[in-house]
Amino acid sequence: MSHDRILTFAFMEPPFESERTITFFRLLDAALDRDVGVRVFAYEGAVALAFAHQQPHGNAVHGRDSGEEAHPLTKDWIQALQEKAQARRIGFEWINCGLCVDERGVNDVIDGCGRGGPPDLWRYASEARNTLTIGTR
Amino acid sequence: MNVLQVIDQAYRTTTEEQDDTILWLTRSMRGAGGNLTVLLSGHAVHYAVLRRRQPALTLGQWRQTQPAELPRDIAELVASGVPVYAVQEDLEERGLGQLPLQGGVRPIARHALPGLYEQVDQVWQW
User: Fold this and answer.
1) CATH number at residue A76
2) Which secondary-structure segment (H or E) carries B59?
């Protein structure tokens, strides 16, 4: 059964390399703003978005240490969206493609992000109002 | 629910993943009971006329042993009940219009695409 207030996203881009990643996260944020539940299937490089060992760094060119630079990390964005969804009492689910995780060695992910496979994407899509796929280019 | 998988990117990840990841995704979801259709468009129409396995990559002493086998993957997708289409004009623009299509792959004219899109519940553009 599909739910009008759920959107599914299938995303392939890794952290940092593509402007699509920012757009993807802004779309998730906008959905939550409208009290629409979000389900994400992270595929290929996107499984690294939730990698728990991402570390901020300073930037000598910017003249800032790590704390001052406050480098954006996608794991923090996911956590922020999880917290936003929880505060608004709407769903926010995230499943990484397990095989994609294994081949990249990014097994340690932040809390709230699970491991699965294509059947989960099919289930997510079947239960959502619609699905947006964002592949790499 | 029926989903149309539109594959426009050709040879994305085929060396390192040893398949096209969207064909793989489609086969996997089909195995989980999904109703799917595949449309090859743009450069991906080349998949429809492939006859050979991808050459193995060799780097120094490292040699790939299981390179992508896209003709097999498409044949098995068709055999599993997934209709596979290739855009006729995209084939012709690439000089592939006169080549025989893989068994089970159907050509489709651009003007017929709206009808194909109307047949499905969701369109996933990859």
Assistant:
1) 3.40.1260.10
2) strand B58-59
Nearest to A125 among B3, B12, B33 (CB): B3
DSSP-assigned letter for residue B52: S
Taking an 8 Å cut-off on Cβ atoms, the answer to whether B9 and A135 are in contact is yes
Question: Cα-atom radius of gyration of chain B, to the nearest Å?
Answer: 15
Domains: count for chain A: 1
Best residue in A12, A122, A130 for a mutation probing chain B (most B CBs within 10 Å): A122
Average pLDDT value for residue range A75-100: 97
- Domains of chain B, start order: 2-125 (3.40.1260.10)
B124 closest CB neighbour out of A44, A117, A133: A133
Pairwise CA distance, residues A57 & A109, whole Å? 19
pLDDT at residue A2, rounded to an integer: 62
| Per-residue model confidence as pLDDT tens digits over B82-126 | 999 999 999 999 999 999 999 899 999 999 999 999 999 999 999
